[in-house]
Input
Amino acid sequence: MRALCVLGLLLVACVASAADTGFAWKPVDDKSLGLYDGGKPVLVYNHAMISRQGVPERYNRACYIHPLYGLDGEVLTEDFAKDHRHHRGVFWAWPHIKVDGRQVNSWIPTGIYYKLERWVKKVADEQRAVLEADNGWYVGEKKIMAEHLRMVVHPATATTRAIDLEFTWTPTDKPVTLWGAAGKSYGGLTVRFNTRIREEGGIPSKAVRITAPTGLTKKDLAITNLEWADFTAPFPGGKGRSGAAVLIHKSHPDYPPTWLTRHYGCLCVGWPGVKPHTLPPGKPVVCCYRLLVHRGDLDLDTLKKAYDDYIHRDKAH
Output
């Protein structure tokens, strides 16, 4: 009997151990899908409309990543930030979208919304996690843009984790014109970091380090062409400083695109930038990025090597 009990305990331990190894996609609720690695949270993809009590309904949003977690479980991103209610973790949005003579705004959601239409793929094992989704951009009941999202998450090393994002945008039956904010260039892939600058205990801008290919930047950059940029700070819940870099694949349109960086908590890729760019109907445009989550302040040589490794690999494989 004792031997059977011991065997039973070993079997339970083996099952638990197997369940806690590798990647796993698990629903957080009916609106959000979480990714875990060895049982530890990596990110949450919010596929349905998210709201927050006390925040006006016009700020409701869907199809974005939040939280994005650091390697020690700290939350790197912020949602419904007090200083910018429309900021939402890792998101892709534009302040100016024109279609069929009408201008709408997905940056501060006005007249347009994103909607999950179907899951294409969910894969999770010890080697990687893959998520593919077909989303739509809607103006009223009219779908103006087909969006295909492909996300590939790689296992963490001792200091970094790579998350590849590939977007394919295809206007439906009308041209869609996109452009960013005048004088700033935000509009495109954006990361809002968890600095909580309007809250008690928030991270001061002086504690933030933003590094670009030219080195550490003391000032915010606007309408600046960059291949990559990195944001590091002492995030709450971490074991020290940590952060994430956004890397642009060399296949990106208008490579390298313009950016806006903000020490208060933002890395904003500005594509197509401040000048309007029209996407013809039925013709897809593909934009690829890597989020490099990391511990500590990565030095310039390490970041350059990480970027070189990325651009010499396939896109979102």
